[in-house]
Design brief:
The complex is a heterodimer of chains A (about 575) and B (about 375). Helices cover about 50% and strands about 5% of the residues of chain A. In chain A, α6 packs parallel to α8 and α7 packs across α8. Chain B has two domains: about 280 residues, no CATH class; about 55 residues, no CATH class. The longest helix of chain B has 11 residues. Chain B is globular and about 70 Å long. The N terminus of chain B is likely disordered. Classes of the chains: A mainly alpha (about 575), B alpha+beta (about 375). At the A-B interface, α15 and β6 of A face α1 and β9 of B.
Chain lengths: ~575, ~375
């Protein structure tokens, strides 16, 4: 078993070597008669020159796929190598990232853990669709049935004959050596779970039979793009069947599947994944607050804060088919008793002690200082220092995450002393400290971009608690966004609501998210059309996703550099 | 959002003051602030010379005295105590100490039958000062003077009985070990205790009402392990815990309840199973950070106080360090109110407790919603 396992590992490793060597393979080579994936071609050039992006699965996607394929009872464990955020999105970073040796070790450990659970006596009868003729010997027929089914779900396409033969042969050899059928399929399953075909969303380009000289994504690659965009997971059986039958290559078939994906409750997972990415919720993993200053802020608050915002978003955008812009002004949200203590709002949970915290819908009254997701803990706490607020960081986050406007990094020789000293009696509020700091010419330019926005949220401390003063001085929360002025956080939310940049940014980010890369200059007309359509449809986010998915640009590929 | 919580929300000002409407105690159209009890400790005030007979010896020494008193031979006592290692004592020693009482010459549990061992005679606190209130309106020679207010005639039999034990020593700044452990170990599993202060305008002097309430929820903790501020609690609608508001005054940020009342709250078997306080008086300081702290005094059935210790049995003796039969005798000896009509023996003891209130939301629910 050990030798065989090593052989399989070498096989996997050789493919991974190609991936690692390229760092980020985003193109393919192929022949007219054969389909070749990017990962199988070590010579493939990098870059989005032909529209194909190879993305590594995110942690959430990996976890959801395992749940979808093997059920929620399978524990994963392990740590996932982080994906760097690029161009404002993890999904763009996922298309430019490779895998380190230590990252692969983690995947390897997880694969063995998962495979061992799948074949254990508690799960095998449910998860393995056949029984071997003998549990102490190889059974090619049963191994083939299980591995082809699992492989189809994991690789998001049917295994090639070569892939299947490799896995069945490995399972047979191990089963015979160890006199255990299940050990054989365990090893083969673990091997598939570390295969690049699983860990990376490979895309396959083929000649377009309807347009001579043109190329297209194959149907399974289309199915994956759709499923990850709408559901953030592997295609389900029906979508793969649509791919297999060729329906996804027809406008009618494609439309039917998109409508099904949008109508499904699983759309919520897709929308959550998009906004968690756009709002940088991955930064919560390293968020810390000074407990002596903000004792209410704990890890549970951190978790609830993200959930609050995602619930607010999905409730408005999906359940109520609402206007995206209203996310910045809505007074409706959901709170747990724990979050209620942070916000200083009574939240009654009519449950016994020890019952898990439940989410209570809350509507703030008119005139309440909290309105919109920018006043949520998930924004004001995430974009603050551990012990004090930062209008600059908050303003930068709004500019970059919500308005897609790049704020330059500060020069290397800035003196931050005045801003950081919250005990200076001369500068009691952040506004006063920033005004003093901004007298330095090199700082003024950027702070004019960030601070007028961030100061609008000064009523919210670094942990998200409400306050009206700092060091005894009453806070001035007025500010401006371009020509729009406001006096407080609800006014700031309204200014962003009314800013065309906010909706343009969402369209741009959503398109980049769908494609796994930034849109190019050549796609400017498409982006413009998406913006127009988004506005015409009342800024309904699911409609935007649908418009993206039904656009030719979503699946468009060209011949790889160097031709065929 | 439920209509109830929406209504509650609408009553909350930005400053966290709840403007009454839904859960106002009737007549006073006023403001109220609710608190959850964060600390509830015997109000200790220890100082050099307050125990002229000395600090009571540790239980190990008292065990020897009690074992000797019930007739255990010295050789056997040495054998028993050789296995004494606090909470890690040998099973034989643990068993011998727990059952050191004798009835008809047979070993019995000394915690359940405290009179089955002789009284080791806890030393009394004989100093001039102790926290509390003049509960009986009299000025006897044994009464104390409150160190903060200067009030004379302070009745505090509980402090007199237990204040010379090392684990009861403490001050306003230093929590006494015994009560620190009891409260801190049990507040997570007992219903939270609340109190709501109602007045016309907190920025002005005037009459106040303080209503103690039992919550349906327990406390939760913050990042530092203290009671989480601004949490929401439902007030238990059970009529057994519905307390009449205590009446007093607010002056210069200090609340003084000078018209005695009663407080009934259910607690925890390992703390106070129930707080049944009669002729309760209270003073509270409203702190700038939103918390409040002060002293609550009144009479409590002394047997309930004994079970603060007795319920923990051997753990209380061996690890926290209170000799339980000794405590039983001392509490009975210093009980000073509510004599039994038949025996004439006092059933209650005067007490004072330091309480700290943490801002909270107290939401009234109707019976059936709990």
């Amino acid at each position: 078993m050990i030798n065989l396992n090593k052989r399989l590992r070498r096989s996997t490793a050789s493919v991974l070597t190609a991936v690692l060597a390229c760092g980020a393979i985003t193109s393919v080579t192929m022949t007219a008669s054969d389909k070749v994936t990017a990962a199988e071609s070590a010579s493939a050039p990098a870059g989005p020159s032909n529209g194909v992006v190879i993305r590594r699965l995110t942690q959430k996607q990996y976890e959801q796929i395992i749940t979808d394929v093997f059920g929620p009872g399978i524990k994963i464990g392990g740590r996932f190598e982080p994906i760097p955020r690029q161009e404002g999105l993890l999904q763009v970073g996922a298309g430019r990232v490779g895998l380190t040796s230590s990252g692969f070790e983690q995947y390897d450990g997880m694969s063995r853990t998962i495979a061992a659970q799948v074949i254990d006596p508690n799960h095998r009868d449910v998860l393995i669709p056949c029984k071997p003729a003998s549990a102490t010997a190889a059974d090619d027929a049963c191994a083939t049935q299980f591995l082809s089914q699992a492989g189809r779900a994991l690789y998001r396409r049917p295994l090639t004959q070569a892939e299947l033969t490799l896995q069945v042969t490995a399972a047979r050899n191990v089963a015979n050596n160890l006199k255990n059928f299940y050990s054989g399929v365990e090893l083969s399953l673990a091997s598939m779970l570390v295969a690049p075909q699983f860990l990376f969303r490979q895309e396959i380009v083929e000649a377009d039979p309807d347009n001579r000289g043109q190329f297209r994504l194959d149907a399974y690659s289309k199915a994956s793009r759709l499923s990850f965009l709408f559901w953030n997971t592997t295609p389900d059986h029906q979508l793969l069947a649509a791919a297999e039958s060729g329906k996804l290559h027809t406008a009618k078939g494609l439309d039917a599947e998109i409508n099904r994906l949008i109508a499904s409750p699983r759309l919520e997972a897709g929308v959550r994944a998009y906004f968690a990415d756009m709002l940088g919720f991955d930064y919560f993993a390293s968020l810390a607050k000074d407990g002596s200053i903000y004792p209410k802020f704990t890890g549970y608050v951190s978790d609830d804060a993200q959930e609050q915002t995602l619930r607010t978003i999905t409730d408005l955008l999906i359940n109520n088919k609402g206007d995206y812009r209203d996310l910045f002004t809505t007074r409706k949200t959901f709170l747990t008793p724990l979050l209620g203590s942070v916000y200083g709002v009574p939240v009654v949970q009519n449950k016994p002690n020890g019952y898990p915290q439940t989410w209570i819908p809350v509507s703030y009254p008119d005139g309440d200082p909290r309105a919109g997701i920018l006043t949520h803990v998930s924004f004001v706490a995430l974009h603050s220092h551990p012990g004090r607020t930062s209008p600059t960081i908050r303003g930068k986050a709004m500019r970059e995450m919500i308005l897609c406007q790049k704020v330059p990094d500060p020069p290397g020789n800035v003196n931050f002393t005045v801003v950081q000293d919250t005990t200076n009696p001369l500068y009691k509020t952040a506004r006063e400290r920033l005004n003093a700091h901004a007298t330095e010419a090199m700082c003024t330019g950027c702070h004019k971009i960030t601070d007028p926005l961030g100061l609008g949220l000064e009523n919210f401390d670094s942990a998200g608690g409400f306050r009206t003063s700092e060091n005894g001085a009453v806070l001035d929360t007025s500010g401006s966004l371009n020509a729009a002025t406001f006096k407080d956080a609800p006014g700031l939310g309204q200014a962003i609501h009314d800013s065309p940049a906010a909706t343009q940014c969402l369209v741009k980010r959503a398109a980049s998210y769908a494609l796994g890369r930034p849109t190019t200059a050549a796609e400017a007309d498409w982006a413009k059309a998406l913006e127009t359509s988004f506005a015409q449809n009342g800024y309904r986010f699911p409609d935007l996703l649908k418009r993206i998915a039904t656009s030719p640009e979503f699946f468009r590929v060209t011949a790889p550099e160097g031709g065929i | 959002m439920t209509s109830r919580s929406l209504a509650a929300r609408l009553l909350v000002s930005a400053a966290g003051t709840v403007f009454l409407g839904l859960f106002a105690p009737a007549a006073m159209a006023a403001q109220s602030k609710s608190f959850v009890v964060g600390w509830f400790l015997q109000a200790a005030h220890s100082y050099e010379g307050d125990c002229p007979e000395g600090i009571n010896p540790l239980p190990e020494e008292m065990f020897r005295e009690e074992l000797k008193g019930v007739g255990v031979p010295q050789e056997e006592i040495e054998k028993i105590m050789a296995g004494f290692m606090g909470g890690s004592s040998t099973p034989e020693t643990r068993n011998a100490i727990i059952n050191r009482g004798r009835v008809d010459g047979k070993p019995v549990n000394a915690y359940n039958y405290p009179t089955s061992v002789p009284d080791v005679g806890f030393h009394e606190v004989k100093g001039k000062f102790a926290y509390g209130f003049n509960l009986d309106g009299k000025f006897s020679g044994k009464d104390y003077e409150d160190p903060d207010t200067g009030e004379k005639g302070v009745d505090n039999g509980y402090w007199r009985a237990m204040g010379c034990n090392l684990n009861h020593r403490g001050s306003k700044e230093q929590r006494p070990t015994e009560w620190d452990l009891h409260w801190d170990n049990n507040r997570d599993k007992m219903p939270a205790w609340l109190f709501t202060i109602t007045t016309e305008d907190f920025s002005k002097d005037g009459p106040v009402e303080v209503t103690f309430q039992k919550a349906l929820e327990r406390i939760t903790r913050d990042a530092n392990g203290y009671v989480r501020a601004d949490s929401t609690f439902r007030v238990d609608p059970d009529p057994r815990w519905k307390n009449t508001p205590l009446k007093g005054t607010l002056k210069n940020g200090m609340i003084t309840v000078d018209q005695p009342g009663e407080i009934h709250l259910s607690g925890d078997p390992y703390m106070l199973t129930e707080l049944d306080m009669s002729q309760a008086k209270l003073r509270l300081k409203l702190n700038e950070d939103g918390t409040t702290e002060g002293v609550l005094g009144g009479y409590i059935p002394w047997l309930r106080v004994y079970y603060v210790y007795g319920s923990s049995g051997y753990s209380s003796e061996s690890m926290i360090g209170t000799d339980l039969p000794g405590a039983w005798y001392a509490l009975r000896r210093h009980a000073d109110a509510y004599p039994d009509p038949k025996t004439g023996e006092n059933t209650a003891i005067s007490t004072s407790f330091r309480i700290v209130g943490v801002p909270a939301y107290a939401i009234t629910v109707a019976a059936g919603e709990d």
